[in-house]
Structure formats: structure tokens, C-alpha cells
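Two folds, back to back.
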Amino acid sequence: MATYVPNATQTTEPLESQTVESAALEFRTLKARVNALDAAVAADDLTDLRVPETSIAVLPAIASRAGKVLGFDAGGNPAMVDVAGATDPSLRSDLAASSGANLVRYLPAGTGAVATDVQTKFRQTVSVFDFMTPAQIADVQANTALLNVTAAIQSALTAANKVYFPAGTYLCDTVSVKANQFIHGDGKSSIIKQNSTTGASYGTFYADSGSASAFLTGITIRDIQLLGQVATLGFSEFQHLIGLNGVDGVLIDNVWVTGFRGDGIYLGSSPSAGVERHNRNVVITNCVIDGVNNDNRNGISIIDGDGILIEHNVFKNCTRSNMPGAIDVEPNGDLFPIVRNINIVNNTFTNIGGSAGIISFAIGANTFTVPPENYSVVGNTFVGATRPMMVLVPQAVDRGVPLNLVIANNTYSGAGRPFEFARSSLGYVDGVTITGNTFTYGAAAVLAFTNTATCINTVIANNVFRSASGGLALNGNASFITVSNNVFVGNPAINFGVGGGVTSNIAFQNNMINGAGTITSTGTDAGSTNSFLNNTLTNATTVSFRAWRNDFNGTVVQGVAPTTFNTTTLPDSFPTGVFTAILNGDTGVPAGIGSTQGVLTTYRLAGTSGYERFTYQTFVHSNNTLKLGSTFIRRRANASNTWTVWYELAGV
């Protein structure tokens, strides 16, 4: 074993002798500890700030460090900072304030997004619960509606554009809706129950632009129910659920309009008489408009509207017996209302009462500043009807602008009339197209209801009329009426001028009549401008239709030959065209043929006054033996309105 010997020059006490092995072991242990310490320091370097030892100043005193965090001042020396912030010691209290959210910035995702603050962002939409007491919220959620929450709802509508109604029942008086208001809820379970309204024609939701030239734009009401109390409080004509006056760009979508006492939806000029407002570009869609007990005014009233679309709605149980109907377009007695560009499309009507039509256009006698025009009733379904599908009360006189009313692709079934035009004695109907409809009904459709009303420029084509007791009637004056390609089934009575009106230019062509009905024209017109061509009739159909231009010899199976021209009618009495008459006992036929029965056909060419001579007649007699096969012809004389003699075209 080796022994450690101190240096000979050492003057202190020698160390205790050690073995080499134990010294080496102690050294290795020390080295391992040093290495471990170095590794720990290296790891801390990743997260710690390292500065030269000479740049570290003394930390502030203990008292100044309490409740603060370590920071650095402008000189880089340690400094204690309030936890609320380095530059605003009051930030914590500011953030805790009711306006604190406006200190926090918000940037939406997406290119072009504009930064705002959190408070502004959150206030873009509010819940009405944000403005209610706990007791009011509990009342709403329990659907008891014992507490009036009008003030809270109005506060919400005033505070934000977008207002949300959570499910529940809200007892509410009139609240005002502003421009760009977006009102929505949880569908049918968010119920605004009408308590009372500010006044007549205001509505629970009410909007008024304030002047004739101003508009409240961008209003949306959707996914909510407005509930009137007609079942308990009864009828009140001017207690509406929604009243809009002076609006533009409105959407009412997926709204339940229920139990209204007056109108469900009212598009007005103003609650005050004679005050001018205008409504335009209003869409009412996917709504259920339910009067509950037929003790209301109208589902929708349009006093003023330009560009109105009523589409995909359900109307049911509307209107008491002395009010108009489900939809009533009826301007008040002023000249300023605008009622045009109104489209009623793909709706369903069930159990509708009233005194007029399910849909009424009661334009009236006023001479409006802007003429009414452009209406369509298309693709609707009318079930179990007792009233006419549509009633039109037009203007009294010709304004020079046709209505341009289109009634197309509707299905109507019930005991009422399909349509009824010109109820007033001076009604003037101009420009109607009725096409592609299926009518199953109990009373005749009427074009001019009174004998002094007028209907012109009307086309009735490609419809199916099914009726056991009525067909189509025109009681008053009529001109340029086309009835073509229709099917009349049952017991169709088709009458023109039945009330004694003046009729002309009536074209009854290519129709099919299947039933024991009648076709007559009894107006004061002689039939010179009428036509009756290519119709298919059954043996039971009786025809007495005055039309010089006709093919009775091919289409009339039985009945009276309804013509008022014969061999004595002068050439210039005929309009342009081909005219056929069946004669019996006319002594003006060619002599010596043994018969006064036959077919008289008149041909008049179009042209100027120099071509009247190209008016001529042919006569084919019905004698089976004498002059068999011969046809007789004559023409207008060259210089006078008279006929030449008959010339025979001898047969073989």
C-alpha cells in the first residue's frame, strides 16, 4: 500500500495519510455534481434572461414589491409594476366597468375585415332578456304573460339593430321598429302577445318613416309569432299585429300571425287619414296567417304598396262576414296611394270568409296620381271556398293604362265564383289574362258584374271550368275578349252581354264544352265582329251565339242558328274575314233551286277602300236532287254597296 508523504519543506502538521483509491473516488463524485449543476444552468438559459453581473441593480424594497410584478423602467432598471398594466394603473377597474369591453379590440377573420371593439361587436345583437328583470324573464319563460314587458322590448329595439327573442310569451303593447332592424326568435315558441296598441292601425310592431319621401329601409322580422286576442277579446277592426308605413326592403319570413283582431299585416299610408306614406319592395313569405275564428278584418291589407311579393304562405280561418277577405288591396280615398306590382304566388287559402273575394283588388273610382297596374295571382290553392277566388273592383273609367292582371295556374274548389270583376256600376277592366287554372265551383265566373261595367282586352285560355250550375258570364259591355282552348264540364252556362251590355270582338274558339249547358250572346251587338270557330260541343249543348265569323255548320249539333246576317245584309256591313250562316227560309237565295235552306258564307278581304269589291258570298243549298252539287256565288258591285246577281258554279 502506498503512503502519502508530505513535502519536506511543509512546516504545518502533515495530513492524515490516505489511500489513492479513496481520493480518486471523492474526486469523481465532486466532478459529477459539477456536471449536473452545469446542465441545470444550461437548461435555465433557454428561458431566463441573462445579463452581465455588473448590470443587475438592487431590487426595490419589500414594501414597494407587494402585490406587484417585476418590470423595468425607462433606464432598464428593475421596477415594480401594478398588475393592471404598466401604463394605466386603473386598467383593472376600467375593464371591470360596464363599458370595459370597448377597451378590447376585435378583428373578424377574413380578407378585408375591419377591426372594431368587443363592446361594439356585442351590441350589434342583443337579447330582450338583457333588458328584463329576473321576474319578467321568469314570467316570459313560464308563458304566463302576466307582466307587461313593452318597455324592455322597446329598449332592446332602440339599443341594437339585431334583437333576439328567446322562447317564451311576451305581453306587449305597441313598439316602434326602426330602419335596419332585424327581429328574430326561436320560431313559433317565441310569442309576442298583443296587449293593446297605441292607437288605430298602429299594430304591435309599428313602423312609420315620418314623411312621404322618407323610407325606413332594411327591416326583417322572422322566426317569431305574433299573437292577437281575438278569441277572448273579439273583433276590433284597427287592432293590427304588424303595421308598416313608409318602408322599403322589408322581409317578413317564417312568422306566425295568429288571432289578429283587425289585420294580421297592414301596409298603410299612415294611421292618420289623409297622411301620405309609401311602401315598396316588401316580401311576406313562409308565414302562417291564421285568424283562428273568422272574426277579423284581413290577413293582409295593402293600402299603399309598390313591389309587394306574397309567396308560400298559409292563410286560414280569416275574416268575418262584413269584411273583405284574406288579402285586400284597397287604397283609401286619396289620390296619392301607389298600388302596383303586387304578386300573390304559391299560397294556400283555407276556410276564408268575408264579403268580397278571398283576394280582393278594390282599386275604386279615384283617379290616382300613379295608375294602378301589374298584378299577378299565380300558383295558389283555394280549398273549401265559399267566396270568389278573386274580386276586382277596378277604376271607373279608362285611364289609358291597362291593369295587366294575370291569373294563372291556380286551383280553386268551393261553392263560390272563381272570379268576379267590375262589381261597381262604372267599373272598367282593361288587360286581364286568365290561363292555366282549374276551377271547380258553384256559381258562374263573371267578367263584368253589372250591366254598365266594361271589360276589354281580356284573354281566358287553357283553363278547366267544372261547375254543375254556372259557367262564364259577362253581364255588361265587352270588347276584344278571347275565350280559347278551355274545357267546360258539367252544366256550363256561357253568356255574353246577358245584362244588356254592348259586346263586340268576342272570339270563342277551340273550346270543348261537355255538358247540358248553353252558349249565348244577348248583348246589343249584332255579332258582326264576333267569331265562333273550332269548338267541340256535345249534343246537349245549346248554342245561340251571334257571330258572323263562325263554322256552325261543322260544330253546332243542335240549337238555334244564332246569326243576324242573311242574304239581305249589305257587303260593307261585314268586317274583314270569313263568315258563315245557316239559312232557313231566306228568300234571297238563288231562285230555281227548290230550297231556301243552306250555308251562306261571306268572304271579305283586308285592304284599303279600293278593294271592297273583293267581298263575295257563296251559297250551298241543302236540296238533295235539284241543282245537286252546284255552288252559287256573287260579289259586291264595283261602284256601290250592293250585291251582284247570283252566278252558278255547276256541279257534275
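---
second:
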Amino acid sequence: MCWVAIGAGDVVTSEPLRAGDLAVFEASEAAIEFQARGVTEFVLGSAVPHPYELNLGTYSVHTNPDALHAAESLIAQIQARLISLADVYDQTRNSAGRRWARPFPGDTGAVRVPSHATASTHETEMTDRPAAPGCAAKLTVHTESDAGRPSRAVAARGASLNLNERSHPMTRRKIAETIALFLCVSGAAARADNAPGAQPKQASFHVKNVFKVKVPKGAQAVRIWFAVPQEDASSVIRNLAVSTDGVVRYDEDSWGNRVGYLEVRAPAQEQITIREEFDLTRSEIQSRVDAARARPLTEPERAALARFLAPTTHVVVNDRIKGLAASIVEGETNPVRAARRIYDWTFKNIDYWVKDPDHLKASPVGSTEYCMLTKTGNCTDFHSLFASLAMAVGLPTRMVYGSLLKPTLNGIEVDGSYHCWIQFYAPQIGWVPLDASLANIYGKEFPLTEKNKKLVELTTATGYKGTDPSKVDYYFGNIDERRVVWSIGRDLMMQPPQESGPVNALAKAHVEVDGKPHSDWTREFTYREIVR
């Protein structure tokens, strides 16, 4: 659904709207069209239907009454504080002759409010942030009357926002009230709805990657594609800095990952070093995976997601895989329930190699067939097998390559290696993450020995203290906050293109010397947690 709040002026959609009106548009795929009469100010927003029964408040909407009460109280406190600050600012501005930084209408910059209730020069800057996913809407403003028929607007004058005041359509007092209102959507309300103690965790780190490539004698061209951190809904990257002797360029590979690239012609040095540093703030991913909300893919969806249903070099879908997948899901067509059955079968029937390093080994490439044959492997083997089984029953998947930011290696100059997990797609829910390899660590008993104890500890993101069935449920739909993402996908084509064929995955780097793959290089990944 889409809604509009009119702050000033008059607007005509399917019916006239005036200042102070809040209108909700009926569901439609058509563009929302406005005819503005003179100077008009409005706020346009959107929302998706909620699958659960809702409790409605003055400022917020929640799924349980306790959360509603807590959030309404918090929002009222924030609103009162912001209004108080705005009033003090007005007083100090009038007495000192200070001018409002930028008028609200059409303001594309920052709005400043004082951080103290005094005439202080210290100010808090509230800068614009990108809209949340799903909050964008196509807007066409018409000044002629021959516009096409828009979605019908249902005016809610009884729920008027009263945005207009005589002094100005958007005074600082109203800005404060509006900020408090939006907080209920972006922060307070969302947190209150979580179960006690289930607020998404967050962690910050300063991360370093050092790539060292040995240059063979007589080499004419060394080309290096190296992983850089990917920013997504759960990851904020700041202060990315890369230093090396050459010129680094950035482009996207065939899966849309941002990749760093360095090319050195006729290198004189024996070693090429690339140092990469950045700050990361990572949030825990909590997915409320409700199978009742999901349904099978439609044919148009299947076509749109075709690349996520296609096998790759080491993730195969053959008759043996199809037969095994069919026996696991037993005809289940709900994508969430089918994925959970494959997840359970995988972690119960495959063992992480670190449990018995003397007898179990991982494949060097992350292979479905290796994992199925040997019943062991590392994270890439686990999720290659999961991907094959899932795709065999029509579930789109994508592999995520990153690293775990383990507490045991915090601040230690020891390479933290890499880790991968996977996502499957469920209609009406979206991409759902899971980590079957860590479910195997926590979900099956095994003896700890002097040989495997440290390996097991370093394999987890948060430490290992024995079998924990709750972790098995957690890692189906949830991902901890102690991770960085390097890339998504398999069989990658780089830009500029490599000469040696698709890259299996980019968890670290890909190097070519004179057009051939080169393996004499290292990557040292270290980090330090930032305590805020």
C-alpha cells in the first residue's frame, strides 16, 4: 500500500486532498499521479501488508499490546524532548539573531538542532539516509488535467496529521513531531516487537587484508582480482583504504560483486603487496521464517530466478541428486518446509572435517559430489550439497562467501581464513539465510580432543561450548553479527575479464600471470573489535 500526507497546498488525485489530509491508496500496479494546485508539500510513503494481527496506537503499529505500550511511551518521551529542544532553539535564535540552517521545504541537506538545551555552539546534525528497501514509489506530479487514471485515494481526514501551522507549513516543532513519528517505524517499534533479549545484535570491527603475490622471474603481466567488503542491509562499510604500488580500479563481476583489480606490466619487484583496511559495522540477521507465509514459485518467478536454479561447475544437479532430494523432501512443496528438511538431512548426515582432522578432509573446491561421496567437507562442501539438493526440488539458492570475526582471534595477527553460508528463496518471504555447517558443529555430539579442540573453536563465530540444539534452529533463518561478506555466487566472470575461465568463488583473490592461474600468493585477514 502507499500513503500520502499533505503538508501544504492542494492536490488532486482521484479526489481532492488538502493540507492536513492523510490518504491511503488502494492496491494497484499503476503509477500514483498527482495534480498539484500551486505550491504543494507532501510526504509519500509505502508499506507492505502485515501477515499478523496488528495492535494500532497513536504513533505506531505492533503485533502485541505490550510492545505497543512500550513503544508509544518511548515515542512520546522522544517527541517531548525534541519539541523542547526545538522551542529552545527558537528562543536562542530569536535572541541571538541566528538563522535556521536550511528551510525545510525543498531542503536537500542537513537539519540542525541543538544537542543541549542552551545557546550552545554544539549541534547535532541529522543527515539524510537512503530509504529502506521497499519504501520507494514511482511519483508523477502533473500540472495538467489530462493525466491518466491513478490509483484511487481514500482520504482519512479523521486521522489528519495537522501538519500545517500558521507560522509555517513545517515548523521546527512539527519537524520534531515528525521525527518522533518516524522513529516508531525505523527503530523503537521494530525493537519492541522482538522477543525479550532478541533485539538484533551489532558489532563493529577494524579489518585488515594483506595480499602478497610472488612474482615469477620473467613474468610479463600480473593481474590480481581481490575481494573487497560488500555493503548490504546488514553491513555498513566505512573508511575503505587500499594501498599498493600500482593503480587499483573497482568494477563488478558477473554476480554483481564489487571487486578490486590491479594489473602490473613487466613487474620488476619479486613480490606485489596489496593492503586493504576498512571499518565494518555488522548487524545480526533475524528472519522470522513462517512457512505459512510461503508458497511454491510461479512460472514467471521461476524464470526471473533462473540463474539461482542453475548448476555450476562444482554444484551439480544430476539424477542421483534429484533422487536423494526427492527422498528427503517427500513431496513437500512449501519452500520453507522443504528447505528445512534438506537442512536437517545435511547437518545430520555430513560431518565437518575439523571434528576428526586425522581422517576427514575438505575438498579444495567446494564440491557437491565430494561431499555426498565422503560425507564430510568444509563449509563450501556442505553448502554445495545443500544447493544441489535445493535446486533439484526447485528452490533457488545463492552462496555467500565471507569470513567469521571470531572472538578468539580478535586483535591477533593470525589469518582468520574464510567461511561461507547460503541463502534460499521463498516467495512472499524473500532470501532466507542458513548455515548448515555450523548446525553440524552444534547439532551432533562428538569428542573434543587435543587435535580438534582449537580447530572446532576457530570454525565457529561465537565459540563452542558443546552441543546446543538451539543453535541448530537459530542457523536456519538467522546469521550472527560476527561476519563480513566478500562475495556472492560461483563461477564468476571478472571485469576486466580473466583469461583462465570462470573463477570458482572469490573468498580471497584470483591471480593470473601471463594469462594463466597463479597460486603462489597469500592473504592474511586480521581484525580488531571496536567497542562502542
